[in-house]
Design a protein that fits this description.
Chain lengths: 474, 64
């Protein structure tokens, strides 16, 4: 898939896995395989030499691309999705989906399978060495249809989105269609697409680039991807085990089994546990991914060897974004626009929010209910959101991976005090879990009268039960 | 915005100075750094004003 990367929004240093039978080296094994089918456009282009035109073309069938496509199709628009692969690969990658994402997916008809399959968790614990220093509980609120968070492998999320797409005749999803060139102009985009049958061309009124952190479209348009790349490397592993660990998110600073670094353990469906181990800046990616190095480390962490390693990858933390999300008729959405380090679940989640922000605006423009200047609000609102997410993610990274000895001393001072004082617990930062961004832009015009309800300007409407005039609850 | 107080607030300035010095006595450099770090966070929270903290940092950073 062209879309997203390990652990939320990290970039794998090396695609993956060399862990025993069934795990190939270099590329991820297919979890679900789809077929390439020749599109009518290919014959039309071959016959006439004229590229067929479509109102909306989405590049990348990852969680973000499929979300924006479904949203647009459900509003009555025809959408073509192009993806260079033809499979959903193994490896959990983005695994934590928060309430707002689930609410959006629920509106699009895919909330239920996600929640039914996902692991619902509420309690997170932070340890310094062996000591519990901080614990949080994401208590469910009355009247909320969706849980605060679920853990779900990205391949399941993608599978449910593909299954939904199959139900929507307005979406034309084309596997093994790789965009090799684009020509962007003021009122459209011309695309050259490589397929197993050779190349063809189409035109799009609007092109939505959901092709991931390494976005080939961004490179074709020569757009800068600016920000901070952190030195520390992280090893990510999915292990299968039936353990009586509680269904909680456990984060260790300086764990006894991995001195001086950090580690994260959390549960996914199918008895798969996700492990993130910080390796430090000196770690050699090749060496660290070798089975004889990975397995003992995990044995040490779990205290036994009764597990099966399913997937291993390495990544580094990066926080980067493009300057503008909209370039004429090319709109960047999700990781292609902003790459956000994991440990806050802000990658895929913020991408889905990009998608929802974009879909209704593009729908208005295509129906003539708004002019193209509405797109400036997408750029403004989602740029602000990206900055907020990158800010949170950068602060988490600084806390998790101190850059100097003094930074480490300060960090450990907070952890020491956290076990003893309330104020220091609020400073412990093992990832500030994703929240909906409240848009504080010019578009959120202030109330003229004071309002003290929980609904805020520029924020999603709170989920609540409504009562009709007849007293019926909906 | 509250201003950082730089006039003497302590009834016994010598005692306050010695209390801090005594706290460090017997500690090696590493542990002293740890003690200072913990103290900074405790006192910063007690002050509770980001603007005061900002002024204190600026003053402390002079000539560094």
């Amino acid at each position: 898939m062209a879309a997203t990367e390990a652990g939320g929004r990290a970039a794998p240093v090396n695609a993956s896995a060399n862990a025993g039978p069934g795990m190939g080296t270099g590329s991820r094994k297919a979890f679900y395989q789809f077929g390439y089918a020749r599109a009518a456009d290919q014959d039309a282009f071959a016959a006439t030499g004229k590229p067929p035109r479509h109102p909306i073309v989405v590049v990348g069938a990852g969680p973000v691309g499929m979300t924006v496509a479904i949203d647009l199709a459900m509003r009555g628009n025809e959408v073509v999705i192009l993806d260079d692969a033809d499979r959903i690969g193994e490896g959990s990658r983005a695994i934590c989906f928060f309430q707002r994402t689930l609410e959006i997916w629920d509106r699009l008809g895919v909330g239920k399978p996600m929640v039914d399959k996902g692991i619902t968790w509420q309690v997170g614990k932070d340890f310094l060495r062996d000591d519990l220093v901080y614990q949080f509980d994401l208590l469910p609120e009355d009247g909320h249809k969706m849980p605060a968070f679920i853990n779900l492998q990205q391949y399941y999320a993608e599978l449910y989105l593909v299954e939904r797409i199959v139900e929507l005749p307005r979406i034309d999803l084309r596997w093994r269609n790789k965009v090799s060139a684009i020509d962007s102009h003021a009122d459209g985009v011309r695309l050259t697409i490589e397929t197993p049958d050779g190349p063809y061309e189409i035109e799009a009124d609007w092109l939505i680039a959901c092709d991931g952190a390494k976005s080939p479209l961004r490179a074709m348009m020569d757009l800068e991807f600016k920000g901070e790349v952190f030195d520390d490397r992280f090893l990510i592993a999915d292990v299968k085990m039936t353990a009586d660990f509680p269904v909680e998110r456990w984060f260790w600073f300086d764990p006894p089994f991995h001195a001086g670094q950090s580690a994260l353990l959390q549960k996914q469906p199918d008895d798969i546990w996700r492990i993130d181990l910080q390796l430090g800046p000196e770690a050699d990616p090749e060496t660290e991914q070798k089975l004889e190095n990975v397995v003992p480390r995990i044995e040490w962490m779990l205290g036994h060897s009764n597990f099966e390693l399913k997937w291993v990858s390495l990544y580094s933390f990066q926080c980067r974004r493009i300057d503008r999300f909209v370039h004429d008729r090319v709109v960047f959405c999700g990781d292609s626009a902003h790459e956000i380090s994991p440990f806050g679940a802000r990658g895929a989640n913020s991408g889905v929010q990009d998608a929802e922000n974009l879909a209704w605006k593009l729908d208005f423009i295509l129906k003539g209910e708004a002019d193209t200047s509405l797109m400036a609000t997408y750029d403004a609102e989602r740029s602000d959101a990206a900055d907020e997410n990158i800010g949170h993610s950068t602060r988490s990274t600084d806390f998790i991976a101190p850059k100097t000895e003094m930074e480490r001393t300060l960090r450990n001072a907070v952890l020491h005090l956290a076990a003893r004082t309330e104020f220091a617990r609020a400073m412990v930062n093992s990832g500030r879990l994703s929240q909906s961004v409240t848009y504080a832009t010019d578009f959120s015009t202030p109330d003229t009268e004071a309002f003290s309800g929980s609904a805020k300007l520029g924020a999603p409407v709170p989920d609540a039960t409504l009562r009709t005039a007849e007293g019926r609850e909906t | 915005m509250m201003d950082l107080i730089t006039t003497s607030q302590l009834a016994a300035p010598d005692a306050a100075y010695n209390m801090i010095v005594d706290a460090h006595r017997g500690l090696d450099e590493k542990d002293s750094a740890v003690l200072n770090a913990r103290l900074v966070f405790l006192l910063a929270n007690h002050i509770g004003e980001l603007s005061v903290l900002e002024q204190a940092i600026a003053l402390a950073k002079e000539e560094l």
